[in-house]
Specification:
Blueprint lengths: L28 E2 L7 E2 L2 H12 L2 E4 L5 E4 L2 H9 L4 E2 L23 H9 L5 H22 L4 E3 H6 L1 H10 L7 H15 L6 H22 L10 H6 L2 E2 L2 E2 L2 H32 L1 H9 L4 H11 L6 E5 L3 E3 L2 E3 L4 E4 L1 H4 L34 H18 L4 E2 L6 E3 L6 E2 L3 E3 L4
Length: about 425
Amino acid sequence: MNEACPGAIEGKAQPPLPDRGGPQGGRPVIDRDFWRTEQAGAYWELADRLRETSPVFFNSHDNGYWVFTRDRAVREIYKNPEIFSSESLWPWDPEPSYRFVPTQVDPPQHIKYRRIVNPWFSPRVIDAAEPDMRAICRRLVEELAPAGQCDFVTGFALRYPTEVFLSVIGIDPADAVLIVPWVEDFFRGQGGDPGAHELMEAALDSIRGYWVDAVADRRNDRAPRPGDLASHLMHATIDNRPLGEQEVLDMLVVLVLAGLDTTRGELGYLFAHLATHPEHRLRLIDEPELIPRAVEEALRYYTIIFGDGRKVTRDLEFHGVQLKKGDMVYGLVSAANRDPDVYERSDEFVIDRSANNHIGFASGPHRCLGMHLARREMQIAVAEWLRVIPDFRIATDVPLLERGGGSMMTLLSLPLEWSGR
């Protein structure tokens, strides 16, 4: 029995998967895009069915690519960047027109860039920032509470992590009104929707233009501005040389894209779960020490990364498939995080799960830079929301919808209601 997706967050039934015989070794073939809007939960149901049907598929959609569904294969893809390059992260876009640094940079150069920004997102820095993060969260929750209802996505899940992230990197949180719509447009296009590709390109141009102006404003500073990441990058060095302006811009663009969309998505699914599981809400109120475990379980069970793409650097056999140099592969993270070979009660949301080595933040050298920040944001959000609004529910019988899993999944809307003050 799957206890995590009853009622309003249940996925709709899907047609059987085609099995027409693969291009090599009789492997199954599917023809499926992953960008379309679906009823919430549909993409995890799809991932589960793919995993239990076969450890590997060939997806003939778009340019054609191999899909690996089990935990072991997905982890091996992550941990072997010399074979599975991050040059392209999305198999439907094998020759991207953009370059995100350090996300699309392979080792050994990758770690050199990471060392420049790692200190900004370390556990020590997040510990120091927690009082400010909690103050932002508490203010937003207390502003919402008297109304007795809100769209959680727009009223909280977008606002809270955006204010926190922009504050952490030294940007005026008021600029969120500019940046958030650009991030939304980027991910709508990057997920594979051919109708949104121009929106994606325009969004990238706008985000880059924002940082071009910010860099220009800081260009004549003789020393880094305290608490200002853009200024820090402009004074950083790599291989005994200053970072070039294009490198600085590439790094700032990807940090914004990664920092503003991910936590929003996870918060939406976690609070949809809590809204439909009062027994879990009550347990977290009575045992707040379980909140970190509940957050980890949300990252495992409600993984917003449907899959991660990589480009093959040389011919090799991998889990029974003969891969060629230049092939694209797609590690189905959402399937791997519910792999019954790895997790007991893998198809359940276990709120006090103790052993939880999930890959919700990816794995290997490209593991999420902001994972400590995202974890803390979510933990604070649960604690502060339940402190003020302990009893809430989904305020509609209409099925919730989610953005396609091609890029990162997120609820489009989450109407909640409670007794106002």
